[in-house]
Amino acid sequence: MDLASILSNPIVDLALIFVDGLLFGLGIKKGIWSVLLIVLAVLLAEYINYSVIPKASLSSFYTEVIDHIQYVIKNIEAIIPFHDIGAISISLVLFVVGLIIGYLKG
Fold it and tell me: How many C-beta neighbours within 10 Å does residue 45 have?
């Protein structure tokens, strides 16, 4: 059996989709922690009157974040076209399960 026939196996494809979900979950969890720690560092710097980012303040950061969240909520259909997803496939289920496991175990 050669490598091409092994990699063209549908079970291998499903396993790779699951692993892909795991890696995305790990990355998302690490990314969320990174953002939280950066925000905490900026808050601490703001508290001790040390400007980390020139010409930026906590209130301007807050308004930018709120504006971005409102934009995403208003335009969620344009960002993620739910009408094009179609039926839920085993690939999507495996990816989401891998994503959840990767996030929880990361």
Answer: 14
Cα–Cα–Cα angle for 6, 9, 12, nearest 5°?
Answer: 85
Cα 85 versus chain centre, distance:
19
pLDDT tens sequence across 16-54: 888 988 999 999 888 888 888 888 887 787 777 776 666
Cα–Cα distance for residue pair 76/68, rounded to 1 Å: 12
pTM higher than 0.70, yes or no?
no
In angstroms, the CA 43 to CA 32 distance is 16
Backbone φ/ψ region at 55: left (φ over 0), alpha (ψ -120 to 50), beta = left
